[in-house]
Amino acid sequence: MPQLKELLTTADESLIKSLSAQAREVADSVYGKKVFIRGLIEISSHCKNDCLYCGLRRSQKSAVRYRLTDEQILDCCEKGYRLGFRTFVMQGGEDAWFDDERMVRIVSEVRRRYPDCAITLSLGERSDESYRRLFDAGANRYLLRHETADKEHYEKLHPADMSFDNRMHCLETLKRIGYQVGCGFMVGSPFQTVETLYKDLQFIRSFQPHMVGIGPFIPAHDTPFANQPQGSVGTTLRLLSIIRLLHPHVLLPATTALGTLHPMGRERGILAGANVVMPNLSPTEHRKDYAIYDNKICTGDEAAECRNCTEYRMRAIGYETVVSRGDYKS
Ligand code: 5AD
Ligand code: FES
Description:
With 330 residues, this protein is an alpha/beta fold. The protein is 43% helix and 13% strand. The protein is built from 13 helices and nine strands. The chain starts with a helix and ends in an 8-residue tail after the last strand. 5'-deoxyadenosine (5AD) binds at residues 53-54, 145, 147, 186, 215, 217-218, 220, 257, 292-293.
């Protein structure tokens, strides 16, 4: 697709509109007028990493740190199951407290209680052995955004003790083990260029992930990037459409970050070709503390409120949320 760069840069409104319409048509032809829902459980706000963009980075002195207990996590799943969720996403910072023994115990118990559900993990970089043990315990999917496919760009977003090569190694390992794998990146992160975005798209084309998570960069207070401009909603929508067209079957969420920057961001994401939303199932008392970026939405709501709100919002644009695992369709 030689015109990829043109699609990334054009200011031609009619071209952008037709891109979006085509992407939605393709998504409808694969997944219908349906949106998959994932129940997001934010299990830990501790993180050993110091990514320059993230409000939960290790140096963030003002961050409130919490960890959910096994019981709290299982309670979230129980609530979620009753609300119709058939995928649970356990997400957290890179927190040594959630070592293999603890995570295997949790995953095995969720697997035992909910044999009909998909278990997704989003816990950052771990060892090959750890990924293997969690898979054997019953996890099915793993989200690990690559953040950028350009090594130099990666090094500008992360401290020297993080490695682009290891990130890529983790993604390859996850796929080899048999997970459905999600990569992704922020739109409008500092130092991002058309060239780096082009590499992201090439990477998606060659890696063929099952899922791609993208959302606008939103500055987080007290971080090195606190005064950088936020990503653009329009560019995020445009990239969602391009990714849908490059990879018709991909599972593509309309993210919370998109909903944070625009009151109709998630709806617009779906209409631009996304087919997944991830309402929050975390205990309400901890939500505001999972503060990756500023002004995050849904931090005061109960799980049931987010579930209803999502259903209502999708209906309003002609889409139904579905009670099913919502696996990748190959
Ligand atoms: N703005 C938007 N997204 C962010 N992430 C981290 N910090 C920010 C931010 N300031 C994204 C990263 C990470 C995911 C969990 O959240 O892409 O992989
Ligand atoms: Fe959480 Fe709307 S999805 S309140």
